[in-house]
Structures are given as structure tokens and as C-alpha cells.
Design goal:
mainly beta, five-stranded mixed β-sheet, Immunoglobulin-like, disordered N terminus
């Protein structure tokens, strides 16, 4: 774990780094999760660089502030002197995605670098079953379970994208007269994990060998919480418990007014269950089927609903999209609220990028990728809408994808924030994807 640097200790070496000017300089400190603080810059900028996943300092990272370049020490710290006001800062480290901040204005700044290529999330296999014998269904129907695992609260975390091959996380609980254990296998992330299963009544419509005319009706839920998972270590007997009928209710998603032109709209309902993570329920709401049967919040101690609403232009993958994330919801109507409009017609090349300001966006950014390689992320904190790509992080030849983002975070102070402490303020993002050939 990373330990914040709370101040300069009174030793000769630290006094040399921090200066001895009667306390006028702000002592260096790590901002949890990355961020900006103690602004504005007045003479000194303390720049920490950390690994976003492990939170450990990154030594030897190259830092460029304006035209001045240096490297971080063993604490992941580079101190820039004789500097005032907002700065353009570039950070580069081997095996990590480079970062560029425009208009950064804090005496302490912490850059959290993500991986330079898409990682393979460490995982483990869990097996178990669900006893569905108490559920009554008509003849010619089957009981089907679809099992998922709780996610972390980090958007885009590879731990949340683990797939179980061959649909082994879908189990068959038999029909009316031949009930059988609904046995499943699922691959999950490490750490504290919970399992959730949607139970369906599958109507075979009199054609048991033809699945194309089957219909599925969600009828129950089952779960198991409090599982501690070590990556690579399989666990068996992770059986799920049915949730009583009286502990379920309907919720309705209010999609509001998604941006014009984004005609494919849907929403995921989640349940935040605290230390075990977030159940992203394996059901999908749409504007024409906006009501879903879900577990009641009272089934889980201290739980809250969340809504992830998504609108895209319908391509696969989507080239234009807008996403709303609403946390801490407690009623049975889950409202998307205001959406952000994707940045219109951005101009992108290997040497520069420009875009139009999006109303309601707190910051705007551009992510450059090439296949599975994460090349560079540029974030504008001060409203700058045109950026020249610095030579320090020159983009390679070949096709490159640039994703231009508008990010909404009501109440976020871009001169004083911590990504850990202010995570819940990040609630909207809209993007336009452009290919550079």
C-alpha cells in the first residue's frame, strides 16, 4: 500500500529537497487515488507518480512541466521549483499509459498511471448449485439460473470483465417433475466477492428441441455473499440461497432524455452491498421494458441501488455513446437524470487534437489506444479545447483509436480533488471515437 508523504522531516537530505524558507513552501503529500490539491501553484509543484492498481510509487518516471524535464525519486516524487499558476504536465513511465494534464494548478499533484496494455485479470473458479425444487412451474417449462459475481467500484476495472467460457455460469434446474440441482461454474475476480443468480421460467412452447421459440420470464433471485477469493485457487460448494418472494419488488428505470441520435438505449440495475462489491444484476432495462423484478434493498444490510444507463449510436463497437451512473438510490424509480452530449466532430491527428466544449462537462479528455496498447490520456482541467501532442509521448505509426470524452462530475473542484474521496461525484461520460490511420 502507498503511504502518503505528510511533510518534510527535519533531516539534511529532506531540507535540501524541500527547502528551508521558514515554511512558505507546501510540503509534498500523496493525494489518494490521484488528484490535485493545495493550489494554486506558488513557486513549487510537488508531483507524485503512482501505480493506479497497486498504489505504489513509480520511481524513474519522466515528468515534464512546460519545458523542464526530470524523473521521480524512490518515493515517486519530482519537485518542480520556480513555477507559478496552471501548468501543462506530461508523465511517462515504462509499461504504463502516459498521462498529460492541461491547466493543472496544485502545489501537490498525484498522477495515477494505468497499465500500458490491457491486463489479464487474475481470477479463480467457483462451483456450486442452487436448489430450485421449491419453485413450481408448468409442465413443458424449465428452471434456468444465470449467475454473476459482484464487481468493484472502479469503472473500467478489468476485474469486472471476466467471462466464464461456454456459458458454464448458466445452469438448468429441471422441469416440473424432474427437479435437479442447478449446478454452475463461474470465473470471478479476487478479493471479497458475492454471487447473484437470476432465476427464469423458460417456456419451451412445446418444442423442446427448438430453442428459437422459447420465452424466458424472470421469477426469482438467489445469492451468496462473504466469499474471499484468492486468484488461482478454486473453491467448491459455493451454493446459493433463494431469496424469498416477499423480499423482491419491481423497479422502474426512467431514462429521461438521452442525447439526440443515440437511438440504442438501455440500463443496468446494480445493488451496492458494501465490502462485497456491487451486484450488477444480469437483467437489462430498455425504454419499452423499463420495469424489472429485483431483490429488495432490505435483503442486504446497508444496500443501495445504482443505475448505469447507456445510449449509443447502435454500431458494434459504438463510436458515439453517453453513459450515466447514478449511485445511492433508495426508491423503486431509478432516474437517469441529465445526460451529456458526446463531443461533436473532434479533430484528431498524431500531433494534435481539438474538440468543442460540451455543456455540463466538468473536464474533457482524450484516450489514445492501439489495439490492446494504452498509449496516452490527455485531460483538460481549464477548458482548453486544443492540445498539441508532446514529443515525449509521440504516438506510433499504424492505426490508432482516439476516444474524446466529456466527463461530468457535479460539485468536483478540479483544483482540489482526490479520485478516491470524490469517486461518487463522477456520474456521467459521453464519448466520440475517431480512428487515425
Amino acid at each position: 500500500m502507498r503511504t502518503p508523504i505528510l511533510g518534510c522531516l527535519v533531516t539534511a537530505t529532506i531540507l535540501t529537497a524541500c527547502g528551508d524558507d521558514g515554511g512558505s513552501k507546501v510540503p509534498p503529500r500523496v493525494i489518494e487515488g490521484g488528484g490535485i490539491g493545495d493550489g494554486p501553484i506558488e513557486g513549487v509543484a510537488n508531483i507524485h507518480v503512482i501505480d493506479d492498481k497497486t498504489r505504489e510509487p513509480i520511481a524513474g518516471a519522466t515528468v515534464k512541466v512546460g519545458t523542464v524535464e526530470g524523473v521521480t525519486d524512490g518515493d515517486g516524487l519530482f519537485i518542480m521549483e520556480d513555477v507559478d499558476g496552471p501548468q501543462a504536465i506530461v508523465v511517462k513511465a515504462t509499461t504504463f499509459r502516459s498521462e498529460m494534464w492541461i491547466g493543472a494548478n496544485g502545489s501537490n499533484m498525484t498522477f495515477n498511471l494505468g497499465p500500458g496494455s490491457d491486463p489479464v485479470a487474475p481470477r479463480a473458479t467457483l462451483t456450486g448449485s442452487i436448489d430450485l425444487s421449491s419453485i413450481q412451474i408448468p409442465a413443458g417449462h424449465l428452471k434456468i439460473g444465470v449467475i454473476g459475481y459482484s464487481q468493484t467500484d472502479d469503472l473500467g476495472d478489468p476485474d469486472n470483465e471476466i467471462k466464464t467460457l461456454d456459458d458454464r455460469n448458466v445452469c438448468n434446474g429441471g422441469g416440473m417433475n424432474n427437479p435437479m440441482p442447478c449446478a454452475f461454474t463461474i470465473d470471478v475476480r479476487g478479493g471479497r466477492v458475492a454471487l447473484i443468480a437470476a432465476i427464469y421460467d423458460r417456456n419451451l412452447n412445446g418444442t423442446p428441441t427448438n430453442f428459437n421459440d422459447d420465452t424466458m420470464t424472470l421469477i426469482r433471485w438467489a445469492y451468496r455473499s462473504g466469499i474471499t477469493v484468492t486468484p488461482g485457487v478454486a473453491q467448491s460448494a459455493q451454493d446459493l440461497t433463494l431469496i424469498d418472494v416477499g423480499m423482491m419488488n419491481n423497479v422502474t428505470v426512467d431514462f429521461g432524455s438521452p442525447p439526440s441520435g443515440l437511438q440504442t438505449v438501455g440500463g443496468l440495475v446494480g445493488i451496492d452491498i458494501g465490502n462485497d462489491g456491487v451486484f450488477q444484476l444480469p437483467v437489462f432495462a430498455t425504454p419499452t421494458a423499463a420495469t424489472l423484478l429485483v431483490p429488495k434493498l432490505s435483503q442486504f444490510s446497508g444496500a443501495a441501488f445504482r443505475l448505469t444507463a447507456i445510449a449509443t449510436n447502435g454500431t458494434d463497437p459504438a463510436t458515439t455513446e453517453s453513459v450515466v451512473l447514478r449511485r445511492g438510490l433508495s426508491t423503486t424509480t431509478l432516474a437517469a437524470g441529465a445526460w451529456l452530449t458526446p463531443p461533436p466532430s473532434p479533430t484528431v491527428s498524431r500531433t494534435m487534437v481539438s474538440w468543442a466544449t460540451v455543456t455540463g462537462a466538468t473536464v474533457q479528455s482524450v484516450e489514445f489506444t492501439q489495439g490492446t496498447a494504452n498509449l496516452l490520456n490527455v485531460t483538460s482541467f481549464d477548458g482548453t479545447t486544443e492540445v498539441t501532442i508532446p514529443d515525449l509521448v509521440a504516438l506510433p505509426s499504424g492505426a490508432i483509436t482516439a476516444k474524446v470524452n466529456a466527463i461530468g462530475a457535479d460539485g468536483l473542484d478540479v483544483t482540489n480533488f482526490s479520485l478516491d474521496a470524490d469517486r461518487d461525484k463522477l456520474d456521467r461520460v459521453a464519448a466520440q471515437t475517431v480512428t487515425i490511420n
